[in-house]
Amino acid sequence: MKIVHAASELFPFVKTGGLADAAAALSQSLARQGNPVAVFLPGYRAVLEHPRVREKARKAITLGIEMDDQFHHGEVLEVGLEKNLTLYLVCRDEFFDRRHPYGVGGRDYEDNGERFLFFAKAVVEALSQLRLKADIVHCHDWQTAMIPLLLRYEERRRSAVLAGRTLLTIHNLAFQGIFPMRLFPLTNLPEELRGMDGLEYYGQINYLKAGILFSDSVTTVSPTYGKEILTPEFGCGLEGVLKTRKEDLFCQVNGIDTGLWNPADDPHLPAAYGPEDLSGKSRCQEKLLKQTGLKPKGKGPVYGMICRFTPQKGLELIRANGGFFAKRDCRLVVLGSGGEEDERWFKELAAAHPGKISVNTGMNEALSHLIEAGADFFLMPSTFEPCGLNQMYSMRYGTVPLVSRVGGLADTVTDIGRDPEEGTGILFPPTAEGLAEGLSRSLDLYADRPAMERAIRNGMSRDLSWDNAAAAYLRHYESLL
Ligand code: ADP
After folding, report:
1. 236 and 336: one domain?
2. Ligand 1: distance of its center to the CA of 373 in Å?
């Protein structure tokens, strides 16, 4: 089956969150299962500077993209990544030659509406010029959500078939791509799509809404999140629109790249380990504590946390429980980036408790692996979580997840209280009191070594690989054709 993916992030070229990991691992897994896969990505500066791109990129086509009454030029570069897997980079310096994909200093670029509309139109144009004849065009999040509609409209205009079925995966409904109505003419879509049955959303336009309405299938990244987003509490204002597609909603939990995230063979770690011999994990902990300036000795556990600093990740809950980390016999190491206010609060907490709390900012792939390996518990008190990857990385690394019972966290972690034999972690309600209770349970578990080791081994022996998830996507693609 010929498959096209369009995404705004792709590991290892550009990443701000789980989308990059999921898009990369899914496309790779589908390619390795024998399907020709093309992935479209904006040609951001960091991507063009990546050694694999610099070495191999060649120009594939020139673009002339109509946006209102202007033509915007650009080009598409082609990079062969591996057998069956080709990366296409949509380039136009004005839009993508920037240091960050979406914005700087916690603020979005003002022209994101134009940038990702250009990207979506460029993908449609490339499908035609490159004659990819894709059976499936799989789009990810709002940045690519306009593609299904633009594709069908273009087909009608040209009386030609450009691709088979379209899918939109919602990795996070909180980001929708909402822009002023004055951008509507840039779409060159017919006027009837300006209204409520089209792009309109409270007087503005909403790219994700267009994707939900006009793709052949809408998918989410976990069954619980798939149910949650149909409610006002989690629907971010789109629950009504989503309900109209309820029958076509397909929910599939992401996998993880078990090659990149493998404690038995991880170049970022000082020692290898596996479920049968955990001694290497202690060496990872020693290195983590040393590197982050934490006290090497102490009876209590080490908590790890890696996230974007944003309310979704439950930072309010951590704030409310700051006293736990300050007073109890434990250490906390945080790696995060984003919100300045949260960063300041965490830094102050760390400064007030040297040796006990370490806060590290910026994107740091190597430290993220070391935290996954060196911590005893991985904290994820998210208020909502479409799927979440870190809880799966932590299970793979023998670090017990301590997570709120929402979305993909509820679907991937089994609570040791509910199932002492098979349990892999601790789940709690997404409230400050819930986290307090979860933290208290983690101390009890840590003190009970046999139970702790059982949870560790249960997590490590879970099959979290993409193979199953990719096979499920393939079956779903087939069902659409
Ligand atoms: P989300 O996509 O909502 O950010 P996920 O848990 O699904 O959350 O995925 C986050 C991904 O980004 C994980 O691979 C995580 O390790 C990584 N990550 C987040 N913040 C950082 C950081 N500061 N440095 C390195 N990796 C990070």
Report:
1. no
2. 15
Kindly give the distance from the C-alpha atom of residue 89 to the centroid of ligand 1, in angstroms, as a whole number. Answer: 23
Rounded to two decimals, the pTM is 0.92
Instruction: Output the six-digit token pair for 462.
Output: 């879970």
Q: Using the mean position of ligand 1's atoms as its centre, give its distance from the Cα of residue 172 in Å.
A: 13
Q: Is 452 in the same domain as 472?
A: no
* Dihedral of alpha carbons 442, 447, 451, 457, sign: positive
Which protein residues touch ligand 1 with a CB less than 6 Å away? 17-19, 21, 306-308, 335-337, 363-365, 368, 387-390
233 and 122, same structural domain? yes
Burial 10-35 (b: 16+ CB within 10 A, else e): bbebbbebbbbbbbbbbbbbbbbeeb
Helices (H), 130-217: 147-158, 184-187, 207-214
Per the structure, the complete domain to which residue 129 belongs is given by 3-255+466-480
Return the ligand 1 atom nearest residue 335 CA.
Answer: 23
Q: Which tens digits make up the pLDDT trace of 76-130?
A: 999 999 999 999 999 999 999 998 999 987 789 999 999 999 999 999 999 999 9
